[in-house]
UniProtKB/TrEMBL annotation:
Cofactor: a divalent metal cation
Keywords: Metal-binding
Organism the protein comes from: Amycolatopsis vancoresmycina DSM 44592
Molecular function GO labels: hydrolase activity; metal ion binding
Family indicated by similarity: Belongs to the metallophosphoesterase superfamily. YfcE family.
Domain Calcineurin-like phosphoesterase per the UniProt entry, residue ranges: 1-151
Lineage summary: Bacteria, Bacillati, Actinomycetota, Actinomycetes, Pseudonocardiales
Protein's name according to its UniProt entry: Phosphoesterase
Keyword RNA-binding in annotation: no
Top-level class of the enzyme under EC nomenclature: hydrolase
SUPFAM superfamilies (alphabetical): Metallo-dependent phosphatases
One Pfam family recorded for the sequence: Metallophos_2
Length: 167
């Protein structure tokens, strides 16, 4: 099962559309995960139409229309992998311990908000992933997203992808 992880798209505030490379990943993915800050409901509609399966949450920049359609926390089991998605996890200091406490029955937690890619493992074995942003790099050198696969009940081959700089 192929996964695409994105967050903090901020459309159309930070970009007019998702980069073509991301749309190609949407087409290839079995599951698309969006960790919030969509900003415009049009992207939710388009991802729902173009994804085989979409799991998403709202972020702090998402208004009433998105909050009416998306949860604050999403949970799913993907071939034995217990996934949770949330937009914000708080400061990076102590993140693993806080998330261990908040998500005790979770194997993988996908989050966003900072636009900073993140891939760590908490003491319990909980994997924490932040794909960064495919449209707003902030102080990062590149816009980014992540892919991975679920195989034999485990998340494998997690990869951070850098997008070419926009002109």
């Amino acid at each position: 099962m192929r996964l695409l992880l994105i967050s903090d798209t901020h459309l159309p505030a930070r970009a007019r559309e998702l980069p073509p490379q991301v749309w190609a990943e949407v087409a290839a993915a079995d599951v698309v995960v969006h960790a919030g800050d969509w900003v415009d409901v049009a992207l939710l509609d388009e991802l729902e139409a173009r994804s085989k399966r979409l799991i998403g949450v709202y972020g702090n920049n998402d208004g009433p229309a998105l909050r009416a359609r998306l949860p604050e926390i999403a949970r799913a089991e993907l071939d034995g992998v217990r996934l949770a998605v949330i937009h914000e996890t708080g400061a990076k200091q102590g993140r693993e311990q806080r998330c261990d406490a908040q998500f005790p029955d979770t194997d993988v937690l996908v989050f966003g908000h900072s636009h900073i890619p993140w891939d760590t493992v908490a003491p319990s074995g909980l994997r924490l992933l932040n794909p960064g942003s495919p449209t707003d790099r902030r102080r990062q050198p590149y816009c980014t997203y992540q892919t991975g696969r679920v195989e034999d009940g485990a998340l494998v081959d997690v990869e951070l992808h850098r997008l070419p700089r926009r002109r």
